Amino acid sequence: MLSILVTFFRRNLGLVLAVAAALIAIATKLALTSGALLPGLDGAFYWVQVRSLLGGKGMAFDDLPLVFYGQTALAALVGDIPTAVRISDAVFPAFSAIPLYLMTRGARSPFTPAIAILAVLLFPVQLFFFTGDFIKNAAAIPFVFFIAWLLSNRENHSIRFTSIWLAVAYVALALSHFGTLLMGLLVGFLWLVLQLRNRSPKFWVAASGVSIGAGALVLALLWWLVPARFERLIGFATSADVVFKNPAFLALIQGRAWPVMMFTIVFCQVASILGGWLTYRNRKSLTYNDLSLAIASLVTAFSLSSPALGSDWSDRLAALAFAPLAVSFILIFRVTQIKWHKAAILAAVTLAVVSSLFLVEMAKRPVLSDSVYASFKSLVSEIALPANSVVVASHGIEYLTAWEMKTDVLEETFYPDTDLSTYGSVYYMARKYPGGASQGVTGQVVAENSDFSLRKIR
Questions:
Q1: Sign of CA dihedral 296, 298, 299, 303
Q2: Fewest C-beta atoms under 10 Å: which of 68, 111, 361, 366?
Q3: What value does the mean pLDDT take over residues 51-58?
Q4: What confidence tens digit (pLDDT) does each residue in 365-385 have?
C-alpha cells in the first residue's frame, strides 16, 4: 500500500503540490474570517441574501444571483448561514486553482502549478480587499481563468467545444459580477481582434458581428436580471467625466491610498510593462494564439490598474487586474528560455506572495468590533418594530440591522432622495461615537444604549 502511494505521489507530484497550494490558500482565507463578523462592511449583506433565498422569498436586495445561490446551497448543507458564507469566501476563489493547474501542468518543474496557484490566491487583493466585502468579485474570477484556459487551448479542442464552454463561462460571469464580466469581455474582445489581424476584411465583418451579438446578449441578460447594475455599467461606459473624476494617482501621490491598493496599482502597472517587453522578446516563440492572448491579457491588466481611473472605480477595477496579468505571465513562462527572464518572472511571483505576508496588518477590520457587535445585538433584541417599517442606517450597519431585526433597510446616503411613502414607519439606527452626533437626524428615541440609538423619524 505504501509503495502504491509513493508511486502515485511521484507520478502526480505537480497535482499533489497544486492541491496543497489551494488548501493553504483556503486555510489562509479562513484565518482572516474567524471573528463574529466578516472583515469590511458588507459581510452581513450576504447573510441577508442567503436567508431570504432559503426562505423562498427571492433575494432581499437586487443583485446578480449565481454566487448567492451557491452560498444558499452551502447554507442548506452546513445548516448555518454565517458559516456557509465564510466557507464560500475561502473556497469559491480557490476554484481558480483548477484552470491555473490546467494551464501550467505541462511545465518542466512540478512546482510550477503550485507557484502559480499560490501567487494568484495569496495575492494581496485576494486576501485584504476581497475578503468579507467583495465575495462576489473573488468568486467570479475563476471563470476568467477558465476562459483564458479555453482560449489558450483553442487549437487543441473543436470549435464547438470551445464555443459552448466559452458561452457557459460568460453567462456564469454575467450571473455573478458585472465588473469581472467587463474584464472577461475585454480579454475576449482583444484576443479576437488580435486573432483576426491576418484575416480578410470579410472575415473581420463576420466575426465582429458575432462578437457584437454575443456582447448584446450578455448586456440584455444583465439588464433583465439587475436593471440598476446595467444602468451603472452604461453610465461608466458613456461618462468619461465620471470614469476619470478624481484620478487614483492623486491619492497615490498624496499618500491617501490604501496600502493594499497602492501596491496593487504600482505592481500591476510595472508588471504589465515588464510583461509587454518579455512578450515582445519572445514573440517568435509564442504561438499565434498565445501571442494574441498574452497581449490581450497585458492590455487588460494595464488598463484596469491605470492610476488615471477615477477613485469611484479605480479600487474595484485595479483589484481585478492581477488575473489577466497572471495569465500573460503563465504564457510567457511557457516559452521563455533565458534564465534571467525566468528569474524576473519568479521574482515578480515571489514579490506578490511575500507582500501578502507583510501586508497582513493591512487586513480590513469588521464594521464593528466583537464587543460593539454584542452591544448592537443586545439593543435590537429589545426592539419590536411594527409591520411595514424601514430602518435607515450608515453603510455596513444597515446590513447588520436587516440581519438582526429582519426588516427592510436603506443606506443613509440614499435617504434624502428615496420615496419611503409606502412604509408606515421610518426609523434611524445611529452609531454613537464620543462627542459625535447623529448627522442631524432628529426624532423620538425608541431605544438606546452606550453604543447605538434607534430613533423614529416618521
A1: positive
A2: 361
A3: 92
A4: 899 999 999 999 999 988 889
